[in-house]
Sequence to fold (981 residues):
Amino acid sequence: MPELASKTDTAVAAQAATTTDNVLATDAGPAPGKPRSLWSDAWYDLRHNWMFLLSTGLILLLLVVAAVPDLFISGDVSPRDGDLTKHYLQKPELGHVFSAEWLGYDHQGRSIYARLLHGTRASILVGVMVTVAVTLLGGLVGLISGYFGGWVDSVMSRITDVFFGIPFLLGAMVVLNTFSERSVPVVSLSLAVLGWTSIARVMRGSVITVKQADYVTAAKALGAGTGRILFKHILPNAVAPVIVVATIALGGYITAEATLSFLGIGLTDSISWGQDISAGKDYLRTAQYVLFFPAAMLSLTVLAFLMFGDAVRNALDPKSR
Amino acid sequence: MGRYVARRLLQMIPVFIGTTLLIFLMMYALPGDPVRALYGEQSVDPSQIAAIKAEYGLDKPLWQQYVNYLAGLPQGDFGTQIASRRPVAEVISEAFPVTVRLTIIAFVFTVLVGVSLGILSGMRAGKKTDTGVLVLTLALISVPSFVLGFLFQWLFAMQLGWTTPTVQDSMNFSQLFLPAVVLASLSLAYVARLTRTSIAENLRADYMRTAVAKGLPRRRIISMHLMRNSMIPVVTFLGIDIGNLMTGAIVTEGIFNVQGIGNLVYQALSRREGATVVGIVTVMVLIYLFVNLIVDLLYAVLDPRIRYA
Amino acid sequence: MSIIDKTDAVLEPRAEDFDGPLLEVRDLHVEFHTRDGVAKAVNGVNYTVDAGETLAVLGESGSGKSVTAQAIMGILDMPPGRISKGEIMFRGQDLLKLTEEERRRIRGRRIAMIFQDALSSLNPVLSVGYQLGEMFRVHQGLSKKDAKAKAIEMMDRVKIPAAAARVNDYPHQFSGGMRQRIMIAMALALEPDLIIADEPTTALDVTVQAQVMDLLAELQREYRMGLILITHDLGVVADVADKIAVMYAGRIVERAPVHELYKSPAHPYTKGLLDSIPRLDQKGQELYAIKGLPPNLTRIPSGCAFNPRCPKAQDICRTDVPPLHPVTAADGTELVGRASACHFWKETING
Fold:
């Protein structure tokens, strides 16, 4: 299986790894003025990309909301305690910007706006934690697998296949079902255990490509040790496609957490947009805003990370434009 | 070719065993007890529970249960659903055709719309159409499918009245269309993006320049030279995506009340029905493995540079 | 298909009675709009090719030699490329004024091109027989079967062993030299009037280079085609070319019959190129190298574009663009076909 199954990943990795010399290789290209590296070229691209600027702005805003949600709401409003008698499904007051009643109240009389703000932290934490865990775990497996080859690769690739074979959402449901208390780290780790395989495959393909490069052979010929070759020569050159895949996946992990929370097997100890959407579905006929606002907030967050990942991908892999 | 297939089939065995074992362990490591759960709150004689457990082999050590499970599989024996006391194979085969239908409609929709959008924007990379498709795919990927499901339910059923909010007859193709579109949305966006990238990249390939230099008509250049090459990664993705569509059905079926595998697995999970969950995952893994094999064979047909290794 | 009838009616009679040069490029300007500004790739190129004649266009990468060829062929990427000025007369007809469909009918049939890297220039997923046969199917309307027979015939012509057995093979299954032969076969398939070979041997092993070059020259003589040979390799040129045009920064800096150029270069750049060829009789001496780098095409130096690298540059070279002067011998007699774009061509040719 590795020969054929991994060829797409290898191709993707190879593309991303060899982009710099491909920008203008024809006769028409301007003569080389200042030398541009992959990273400085990428940085130039990013600074001139509206998608990157917009998404970075959004993400920064979301991070501030996640850190200090109360900063964005006037008065002291609890997202957890509602007043059923006063606020049961109270309609939004769109004019009262940043107030507790701005986006209305839910079926338990809780301020929807306050819950939106307080749900940000869990969503983003899960997204970031899964991404970091997946990159470390998958990156390590892929690096070892790709660099050492042989039986190490065979065993590692087979293990990767096993985990890759489990449907992501279904697997997450089964794993999370075993926990009665599901905190942010529990949900993140469960998703990471199932999600590291694609990173491992990309990393493996990328490492195999880079391993054959002349500068690696040169480093070996000069007597560099395995550790030095791995971390000084291979890793920095193989990491670009992994960063691309990981950034784009971040939004997907946020969606996964929301989906699991929506199904009732997600976070138990935090406010989660997925839960609020699930609760709102019962009022779809009468009070759409209960479902609509958390859904919009969730989509916007995913969109911000997705655009960010896209921009990074375009910058690191100009061929995909 | 025959040898390659045989070797691939052999390689599947450890992956299959590993995957099912993993799910088996996760499922049976659960603290809950499906037999005890049968009786709800009422008190039961422990000997009665022990008898039921013995009947289904649940009293044996875990490894033995797993070996028994594997041994039963070739005969189509997936174990017994404890709540209904029916064979799991029977329960699955009832729900399965519904999910397969849903998946097929979603898949066809993904291919038709996704590939067309991808071609459209790939051929006009950087133009307005391209930006439009980019925005659409960004939206489809960012809006989770369960949100999109409710959005469609609200818009098409509650506002426009074109259809019922939930599916009444799960075997009816036209009723399954709306859930299938929701299910397809994510894959569709990915397929459109992949097609676009592939086309835009191949448009710049040297052999495309050669095709122009040969004086070939534009239509021929696009259909014979551009498409043949651009579709290779798309076909691979589509194959692997069938598995994603089937898992995605878990959520979609719940929203639209479609009586398929998704509903079954959801109920089984909440009742901690190990046998049913493991059975469904087993079927999914089998489908995934076979689709993967077919995709790899197809890949070698589409791209002569790939040899059966 | 009225367009086809019309083009044929326009082109065919002229083919017989037109007695000017086969191809004449007049004052061609091509620019590319890039992120870093407008790159002026071709800045007023003039050259002619007659039937049966071989013109070698020599220059470093970025000199505009390939861009000129792509403009003739009509395969420039536009945008970012743009032909801002000039004419490309093919049998007395300006190609730049034709419709896209009319140009398509000329491409491959009347003017064909051979590319540098045959592996990437051939479609990886189609068999070589199919790609060759396509020429006959599209331009001559042959059936699939007849086209395949013709393809085998062409593969035989370019001396591919066991052509009939290999016709269904894919490009990656051939060696580099064989692949380039297939490119040649494809270009020659419809016996065009003009072939443009863009560095046809650069990607090949030295031993194979000679074989491929000989084959190309032999077939050119046989069909009496015009050939534009684009190269940066002076060694390739000497044996096959009739005349040479040396390009630098989008301009022709020197023009000469092939042997005269080697004997007495009239431009410091040409002289530098010739001096940088290693020679057996100068063993042990340091090899000459032109200092500096080719200019950035978005910021071509004022005056003579070569002045920052020229060992003989004077003040005038930094201010005035030298025109392409006709070159005369020391006694004043005109040297046919020679020209140099150097203010000091006299000093160069005599010193």
